[in-house]
Amino acid sequence: MLTKTKIYLSSPHMGGSERKFVADAFDSNWVAPLGPNVDGFENDIKKYLGDEKEVAVLSSGTAAIHLALQLLNVSTGDEVLCQSFTFSASANPILYQGATPIFIDSESDTWNMSPELLEIAIKDRIEKNKKPKAIIGVHLYGMPYKANEINAIATKYEIPVIEDSAEAFGSTYLNKACGTLSDMGILSFNGNKIITTSGGGALIVRNKVLKDKTVFYSTQARDNAPHYEHSSVGYNYRMSNVLAGIGRGQMEVLDDRVKARRANYNFYKANLSKFKNIQFLEEPEGCFSNRWITCIKTDSYNLRERIRLALLGDDVESRPLWKPMHMQPVFKDCLHFTNGTSEELFEKGLCLPSGSNLSQEDLNRILNMILKTLKYDT
Ligand SMILES: *Cc1c(COP(=O)(O)O)cnc(C)c1O
What we know:
The protein is an alpha/beta fold. It has helices at residues 18-27, 36-49, 61-71, 92-96, 115-127, 147-157, 208-218, 241-251, 254-272, 301-313, 341-348, 360-375; strands spanning 54-58, 79-83, 100-104, 134-138, 161-164, 172-173, 176-177, 184-188, 201-205, 278-280, 287-288, 294-298, 319-320, 336-337, 349-352. The protein has twelve helices and 15 strands.
């Protein structure tokens, strides 16, 4: 008997030329956090994003958020507004800086930061003489947040926006690339993201001065001197030239990966949307999602769990949607502005396997398992 292989939620998917770029790094001995692949990868990303921005590649998306906060001078005692419905890496760097996160709930049509609650929170904090230092919005699961509305509020109160685009490389909002919509953007190339360098990230900034600052802080903040001279605290956050080689190969296939992930979404939706207890996240007008992960919202915790456990029994990985930050023990004392949206999504929502390397056979296997579960429910 053939044993079935495990199906993962989102696994790495190499394109083919990654090995060549990595071999180049070895052959030229650029086995260091600088070199031709680092420059080449940055150029590829910059071109892909439309050439208006500058890009610095780093060791992770988390490092990119940390440096963004650093560049915005967020420090001890400051407050930062952050989307509550996200992965903890969006918010942890706020704590690294000694600042305090305040969490903002989502709206129901994008599952991202509610502009309405954002403004309520800003007004509240200003009233208490605690004007927030920054806003972190997240394009969760690849779906763009409503950047026009968020930016308008941010501009009105003069608060900079960090755009967490870790899950949304390849997504666009009003035909503009996610990652370029606000003051600063970040990308992640972790193993589970739409393209990967095994681990890595990027900070997207407005100009060369900010890029140079990012590189400065990410390489231990060395002042210009023959010896090691330091007048600020630095970090070891630059991307390795070996890993940037993987990134250059992955950039060649990014558009294919977006197509494949969108096809996964369409497959699940075509086969499951007839069930009234299963809902999909549609693209609001102007939003183009890379569909990094296909998510469903069921009508109950019980149904969600039955689907998840049925898949698990067949060695198929699925996972509840992100547990909101305002519900996390580590952030339990943080102020939050909520409306119930993210709590309900956490209770009833499920991430389905969404890798760009899933075969039709894999997809059928997943679908049949879900259909079997639903049969006993309707
Ligand atoms: C993956 C992810 C990050 C962090 O990126 P790393 O490269 O893993 O450090 C940040 N925010 C979100 C929303 C993510 O999904």
